[in-house]
């Protein structure tokens, strides 16, 4: 049996996606739901993004899983091998407009529409080698601030803009942007992490504004606090597993109604104060 994945190198606007077929073992039987979805997930190579990818695949959906270097994402490669034809791995750097454009063309080469976009990619101070850690008073730099804002706020907006036409062509399209309780002005009761908190508040405003503009076109856009997760970003002391959060986010996404467009919600569907 054969499976295929899309591996798109970030080489500029003019680059066409290359498709590779790889021989692999037998397909594991998916859990089929009555309505299959086409789902795009950013930052899918680890943590919550990887778990969302896994659970959407288990439900029989087609998933476009993006990361900066999918060829180096061993867990995604393994999922692709066990879900032939259902998982498409796409190179995407959400801070690069050229990369976003190339990724958009890669998805369009496979499907004319998307039903779900999950803006999951993000950075947290010190969680990774490229995540700025200097977010304490007295250590701020403009470069660190702009890096965090580019990834956590501007990147998701540009990704959403690029894929909006495919979402409008989808079935009951939903945009779910993963925010944080740290981005709530009402809940904010500490100093650190300054840039992370401010970037998530900016993401909330971007997606609230987007919801006001696209809601009448049948697109539902919400921001969701996924909870404090036991991931590389959240740390081992966190109280919530990625599998539980992903399950809740998928359930929430499936059950969204038009009146919830523009909402800020927890992974369990409870309102979060702005």
Automatic annotation (TrEMBL):
Keywords: NADP, Oxidoreductase. GO terms for molecular function: oxidoreductase activity. One of its GO terms (cellular component) is cytoplasm. Gene3D superfamilies: NAD(P)-binding Rossmann-like Domain (3.40.50.720). The keyword Oxidoreductase applies. Signal peptide: none annotated. It comes from the Bacteria. Belongs to the short-chain dehydrogenases/reductases (SDR) family. This is Short-chain dehydrogenase. It comes from Hymenobacter mucosus. The lineage of its organism: Bacteria, Pseudomonadati, Bacteroidota, Cytophagia, Cytophagales.
């Amino acid at each position: 049996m054969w499976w295929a994945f899309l591996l798109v190198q970030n080489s500029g606007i003019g680059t066409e996606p290359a498709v590779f077929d790889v021989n692999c073992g037998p397909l594991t039987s998916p859990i089929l739901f009555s309505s299959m979805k086409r789902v795009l997930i950013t930052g899918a190579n680890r943590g919550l993004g990887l778990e969302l990818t896994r659970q959407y695949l288990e439900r029989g959906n087609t998933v476009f899983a993006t990361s900066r270097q999918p060829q180096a994402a061993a867990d995604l490669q393994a999922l692709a091998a066990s879900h032939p034809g259902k998982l498409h791995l796409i190179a995407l750097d959400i801070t690069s407009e050229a990369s976003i454009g190339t990724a958009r063309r890669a998805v369009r080469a496979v499907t004319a529409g998307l039903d779900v976009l999950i803006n999951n990619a993000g950075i947290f101070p010190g969680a990774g080698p490229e995540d700025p850690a200097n977010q304490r008073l007295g250590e701020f730099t403009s470069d660190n601030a702009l890096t965090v804002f580019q990834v956590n706020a501007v990147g998701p907006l540009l990704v959403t803009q690029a894929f909006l036409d495919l979402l409008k062509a989808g079935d009951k399209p939903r945009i779910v942007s993963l925010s944080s309780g740290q981005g709530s002005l009402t809940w904010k009761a500490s100093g650190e992490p300054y840039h992370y908190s401010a970037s998530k508040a900016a993401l909330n405003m971007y997606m609230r504004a987007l919801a006001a503009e696209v809601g009448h076109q049948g697109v539902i856009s919400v921001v969701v606090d996924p909870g404090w997760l036991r991931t590389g970003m959240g740390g081992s002391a966190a109280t919530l597993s990625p599998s539980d959060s992903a399950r809740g986010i998928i359930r929430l996404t499936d059950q969204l109604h038009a009146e919830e467009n523009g909402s800020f919600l927890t992974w369990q569907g409870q309102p979060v104060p702005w």
